[in-house]
Amino acid sequence: MTVKLSDIAEAAGVSVMTVSNVMNGKRARVSQQTIARVQEIADRLGYVPNIPARSLAASRSHIVGALVPVGENNSLLVSPHTVAVIGGIEQHLRHHGYHVLLRGIEHEGEIGQAIRGWSLDGAILVEFTDAEIDRIRIDGVPLVALDSYSANPRTIGVRTDDHRGGWIAGALLMDAGHRHVLFAGPPYEGMGVVGQRFEGFRSACLAAGIPHDAIGSERVLTTFEDGRELGRRLRRDHPEVTGVFATADVLAIGIMAGLAESGVRVPDDVSIVGFDDLDISAYTSPGLTTIAQDMPAKVAEAARIILDEIEKGEGPRAPVSLGVRLVERGTVGSPRASA
């Protein structure tokens, strides 16, 4: 026998509308006691929501896409940053009655295919380049682009103050006395996330009075293995460098591993600053000094915007930029310690 909302309402002594709100994640005006009672009765009676019928009645699928670019033979969850972002988005949207479709995108045309094919109510774009987002020509569906500086009016950007983060990292190394430093990050074009972090870093170093040629740069992918490879050859390729700013914690931790394998001590010989403040940054030895972005706030803002766009149709709005802060652990010291 199929259990209906009215059956739950009768058993709980509340209205069908109240039960519907609880089941659909619209709980702002429902007490915690009522929510718990409705859920307990629904579980006891074996209620199973008819999602297709619900979507048809609401003219919505209640599905939001989390779209991530991937290579043809790559996993879309190789980055700890991506895992943290997707997990946070799913949690927020689940609590509002929406499902998240996690989809790897190999070619840009698949963005439109995923949105139309799954009748997505909206999509959150994760780790796409600004150039890729610039080329999106999809209308009528809310799109939020994380960590984007694209001017595409079809998308809303939610990002961290990357320039400020780079400045803090550069100023920290300068204050510690470093005069030959290295920026490590992925290849980039224009002034997107990586470009902003580099410009902030470079500006802080120049403001401290060191010459342009004392600021090196390495283009490496933000993976542990690429960082490890850079760490292994750092002394050979950049013998004068005593301080490194990596654009991601996982890259910084890889560099630390490569340095350790080469007999180079952190921070006695080389100081390292990361970016993100992922959980893993506290588990290294020494703990990674890093620029913290407020990941919970970023994913919460992305979820809030996509829900407002879907349910209220608020239309285009200005990009959102969130602050950063320094988390000092144990990977930055004075270069004089290695003299």
Helices and strands in order:
Layout: H1 5-12, H2 16-23, H3 32-45, H4 51-58, E1 63-69, H5 80-94, E2 99-105, H6 109-117, E3 122-125, H7 130-134, E4 143-146, E5 156-160, H8 162-175, E6 181-185, H9 193-207, E7 215-219, H10 224-237, E8 243-246, H11 249-261, E9 271-276, E10 289-293, H12 295-312, E11 320-322, E12 324-327
Parallel strand pairs: 1-2, 1-3, 3-4, 4-5, 5-11, 6-7, 6-8, 8-9, 9-10
Antiparallel strand pairs: 10-12
Describe what this molecule looks like in 3D.
With 339 residues, this protein is an alpha/beta fold. It folds into three domains: 5-49, 434 Repressor (Amino-terminal Domain) (Orthogonal Bundle), CATH 1.10.260; 63-159 and 295-321, Rossmann fold; 162-293 and 326-338, Rossmann fold. The chain is built from twelve helices and twelve strands. It has helices at 5-12, 16-23, 32-45, 51-58, 80-94, 109-117, 130-134, 162-175, 193-207, 224-237, 249-261, 295-312; strands at residues 63-69, 99-105, 122-125, 143-146, 156-160, 181-185, 215-219, 243-246, 271-276, 289-293, 320-322, 324-327. The strands form two sheets. A six-stranded parallel beta sheet has the order 2-1-3-4-5-11, with helices on both faces. Strands 7-6-8-9-10-12 form a six-stranded mixed beta sheet, sandwiched between helices. β3, α7 (130-134) and β4 (143-146) form a beta-alpha-beta unit. α1 packs across α3. 40% of the residues are buried.
Q: What integer is the average pLDDT?
A: 89
Largest sheet: 6 strands, parallel
CATH class of the largest domain: Alpha Beta
The portion of residues forming beta strands comes to 15-25%
Count of distinct strands? 12
Order of helices and strands: HHHHEHEHEHEEHEHEHEHEEHEE
Cross-sheet strand order for the largest sheet: 2-1-3-4-5-11
Tell me the domain tally. Answer: 3
